């Protein structure tokens, strides 16, 4: 993680101002991450969804799939869940073991290249509860992930490499926004899985 000063964060839980993170740079081995990437590219029903923003319908700049036990609604989009696959269940179990948190759903994002991105947002839908815990696993190409404090504008940046896990907890979804910016650098595909607990 870097802010104005680069520093190394060890695996485990740590506090940030108005939030709490768990970082595990090598949750999944490279060989396993490659194989999970391949399997998930093929077995999930990836869709480019339309969402309503400022009164206009816009295509999302990435592909998505929603899996698990609950329907999910955000930005006027209701996603019916696909079933768990053995791959998703194996990754979910690994996240639950190291973070000691339980999840019942996952939003999967497929970034096809550097032009696919995720804009600034919070994951603060009411069904996630007051202090949502979101476990984010990255597979394939690495991408920059930036957290920005809504009041102080402090930024924290992670290079999310294949096999890494970043968990956001505490007040992170109340006080920080996050994004995966687009880049002109040539980038291969990346799959990101955000495990969530829908109440
Ligand atoms: O791709 C990422 O690392 C972030 C995904 C994300 O923020 C989300 O699905 O809500
Ligand atoms: Mn998010």
Shape label: globular
Mean pLDDT over all positions: 93
Total domains: 1
Give the spatial strand order of the biggest sheet: 1-2-13-10-15-8-5
State the low-pLDDT regions, or none.
none
Structure classification: alpha+beta
CATH architecture annotation name: Sandwich
Question: What is the name of the CATH class?
Answer: Mainly Beta
Helix residue percentage: 10-25%
Ligand roster? 2-oxoglutaric acid, manganese (II) ion
Helix and strand sequence: EEHEEEEEHEEEEEEHEE
Tally of strands: 15
Please give the oligomerization state of what you see: single chain
Q: Could you explain the architecture of this structure?
A:
Helices cover 16% and strands 40% of the residues. By secondary structure, it is of the alpha+beta class. It has a single domain, classed as Alpha-ketoglutarate-dependent dioxygenase AlkB-like (Jelly Rolls, Sandwich), CATH 2.60.120.590. The strands form 4 sheets. A 7-stranded antiparallel β-sheet has the order 1-2-13-10-15-8-5. The protein has a 4-stranded antiparallel β-sheet with strand order 9-14-11-12. The longest helix is centred in the N-terminal third of the chain and has 14 residues. The protein is globular. 33% of the residues are buried. The mean pLDDT is 93. The protein binds 2-oxoglutaric acid (AKG) and manganese (II) ion. Manganese (II) ion (MN) binds next to loops. 2-oxoglutaric acid (AKG) binds next to strand 8, strand 14 and strand 15.
